[in-house]
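Please fill in the sequence for the structure shown.

STRUCTURE ENCODING:
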């Protein structure tokens, strides 16, 4: 079996040495070269033709974002960002994902003796995943790509895709009082969620989201989503009443997000219990709470992501009468979570990302279960 060839790009000699040691210790991975700045990296990409690039965010002579933007325009390839888990690093990393990076890992600390094994597992796993992932073109938000007939309230910016099933084909007014839309995602999910929220109308049902993301990324991610959506996007707080036209995103790393009943209302409940499926927030935890407390009044969506978190919970939602949607293989960066949900038998519709918003709005008006092959 051929090894996955990796080029490590980082201005720190110590980090280059550390990453090389971690990667080369794994039988199926090999560091074929290192580079201390983007100009050297550009030359080595041509010479070595690596399968995956690990890229530092802050670089001399040309910053990592500028290099990534040029790379994805001229020579698209799988990139795993290596960034500091700081507020500034979060903003930069989210922008890198927008430009086409597959995933990110936190920059290793100088003294990682106690966590070396866990860190090695994380970065090697993400390199393997990146090698198999679909590289998406850089996002371009300059043109409005909605239907010929606009939404009742136009988004603040344009979507980056032309909707295959345009929103204009579906009713603009629909009952949302008891509807809840639950979304789960992981790798590639920040951009997939952006597409969905940018095309939802202001009177869409209340939406709850569990996205695998570090705690330091939560505020930046929520702020970005609020800027591109006509819905009100919030970081979920315990006791928040779930209202139409509002989106509630689970806090990264710190809490699971659940939906519970409070009389006639649905409210957010945050739980700081142990990770489930190695994740907190866990999609399974959110979907299970939806199955138990919302049932047929819910629509579940599972988007691109590595692993199987959410597959069991979606099956429970399906069995409780909720309508369920999985992003299809072709438009997913990684078809792990959606594929597992399909395998578990809990998916009613398998759709390209561009068709999901239209299907949700249609189901709000006409809730019909019909498995789409």
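FILLED IN BY: designer on duty
SEQUENCE:
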């Amino acid at each position: 079996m051929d090894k996955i060839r990796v080029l490590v790009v980082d201005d720190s000699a110590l980090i280059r040495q550390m990453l090389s040691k971690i990667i080369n210790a794994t039988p199926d991975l090999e560091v074929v070269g290192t580079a201390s700045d983007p100009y050297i990296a550009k030359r080595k990409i041509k010479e070595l033709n690596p399968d995956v690039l690990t890229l530092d965010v802050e670089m001399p002579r040309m910053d990592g974002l500028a290099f990534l933007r040029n790379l994805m325009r001229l020579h698209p390839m799988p990139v795993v960002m290596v960034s500091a888990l700081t507020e500034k690093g979060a903003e930069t990393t989210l922008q890198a994902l927008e430009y086409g990076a597959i995933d990110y890992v936190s920059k290793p600390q100088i003294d990682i003796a106690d966590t070396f094994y866990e860190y090695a597992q994380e970065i090697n796993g993400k390199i393997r995943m990146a090698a198999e992932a679909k590289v998406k073109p850089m996002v371009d938000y300059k043109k409005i790509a909605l239907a010929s007939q606009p939404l009742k309230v136009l988004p603040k910016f344009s979507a980056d895709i032309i909707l295959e099933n345009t929103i204009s084909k579906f009713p603009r007014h629909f009952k949302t009082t008891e509807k809840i839309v639950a979304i789960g995602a992981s790798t590639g999910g920040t951009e997939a969620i952006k597409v969905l929220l940018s095309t939802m109308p202001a009177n869409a049902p209340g939406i709850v989201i569990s996205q695998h993301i570090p705690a330091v990324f939560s505020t930046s991610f929520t702020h970005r989503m609020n800027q591109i959506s006509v819905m009100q996007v919030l970081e979920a707080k315990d006791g928040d009443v779930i209202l139409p036209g509002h989106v509630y995103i689970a806090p990264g790393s710190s809490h699971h997000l659940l939906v519970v009943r409070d009389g006639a209302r649905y409210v957010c409940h945050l739980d700081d219990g142990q990770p489930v499926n190695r994740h907190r927030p866990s999609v399974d935890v959110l979907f299970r709470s939806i199955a138990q407390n919302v049932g047929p009044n819910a629509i579940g969506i599972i988007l691109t992501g590595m692993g199987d978190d959410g597959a069991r919970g979606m099956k429970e939602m399906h069995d409780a009468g909720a309508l369920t949607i999985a992003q299809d293989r072709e438009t997913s960066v990684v078809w792990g979570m959606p594929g597992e949900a399909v395998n578990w038998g809990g998916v009613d519709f398998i759709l390209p990302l561009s068709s999901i918003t239209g299907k949700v709005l249609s189901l709000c008006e006409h809730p019909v279960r019909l498995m789409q092959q």
